[in-house]
Amino acid sequence: MPTKARNHNGYLLRWDGHGVLFDPGEGTQRQMTRAGVAANDVTWICVTHFHGDHCLGVPGVVQRIARDGVEHPVDAAFPASGHEYWRRLRHAAVFRDTGVIRERPVSGERMVLDTGDAPFTLVARRLSHPVEAYGYRLEEPGGRTMLPAELAARGVRGPLVRRLQEEGRVTAPDGRTVTLEECSVARPGQKAAFVMDTRLCDGVRELADGVDMLVIESTFLHEDAALATEYGHLTSAQAAAVAAEAGVRHLVLTHFSERYRVEDEHRFLDEASAVFGGEITLVHDLDRIPLPPRRLTGRERGQESVHG
């Protein structure tokens, strides 16, 4: 439930020109205005499940998209089993409708959504909650990072570098064949996962595996672990254990039960820090959290030191 200090859910992930809006709860349209987020910034709406705190903001967001004349497609992912709820939310009031919303119902244990030419893949994975719920994982394709010192050592420069990237091998000025593997290292794509209401399950672990940022619910403290299991939620310690096991770089905790007071916040951080040694953020309304920079490989770090 919203409190005097905290709005309903609503999380926007900015990703290379796209805006992925997760779980717009009641009041999201106004929070977007306060945060300087325009309807035109939204390209995806991803709903994890149809409990009110995760979807009651859909009508306002959709109607704002219509009113502001957004022209680009806005894809909407949601559990297919809740299509009737989506339909009610989508048409909850009288307004001049828009044709840019494209429905992407999710079903099965795991589903890869068609993201077209977006610079990321989007996977939905079923979770464990009293109603059908899904988590989402975004991942950019891997690539290769060129190593200037290795290129220079082989005399590969200018147009030859582009050819090497495109064809995988070139003939250097001295007649040697130079391969892409000799002059570059694999660069893993950045990854982010969004996990809301769920008990511990295989889906949580799959979504979190190796991500740079994990945004995950932390509804209860450890002392209320029995309630967490009963109602289909996680404790802060459980969320942190998932992050530690999965090799997450930045753990973002959210979705705290209203039973706890504002002055209890440090207890969530204390419990998580005892389990996870990486960076942890407890989110507050309108927080902005940067995705960690791409990891450097050992060879990249060596190149960095060589070139100062």
Automatic annotation (TrEMBL):
Binding site for Zn(2+) 1: 49, 51, 129, 197
InterPro entries per record: Metallo-B-lactamas (IPR001279), RibonucZ/Hydroxyglut_hydro (IPR036866), RNase_Z/BN (IPR013471)
Domain of life assignment: Bacteria
Keywords: Endonuclease, Hydrolase, Metal-binding, Nuclease, tRNA processing, Zinc
One Pfam family linked to the record: Lactamase_B
Presence of keyword Nuclease: yes
Domain Metallo-beta-lactamase: 7-190
Recorded catalytic activity of this chain's protein: Endonucleolytic cleavage of RNA, removing extra 3' nucleotides from tRNA precursor, generating 3' termini of tRNAs. A 3'-hydroxy group is left at the tRNA terminus and a 5'-phosphoryl group is left at the trailer molecule
Record's cofactor remark: Binds 2 Zn(2+) ions.
Residues bound to Zn(2+) 2: 53-54, 197, 255
Cofactor field: Zn(2+)
This enzyme's EC code(s): 3.1.26.11
Catalytic center residues: 53
Subunit: Homodimer.
PANTHER family, per the entry: ZINC PHOSPHODIESTERASE ELAC PROTEIN 1
Assigned protein family: Belongs to the RNase Z family.
Free-text function comment from the UniProt entry: Zinc phosphodiesterase, which displays some tRNA 3'-processing endonuclease activity. Probably involved in tRNA maturation, by removing a 3'-trailer from precursor tRNA.
UniProt name for this protein: Ribonuclease Z
Species whose genome carries this gene: Actinomadura livida
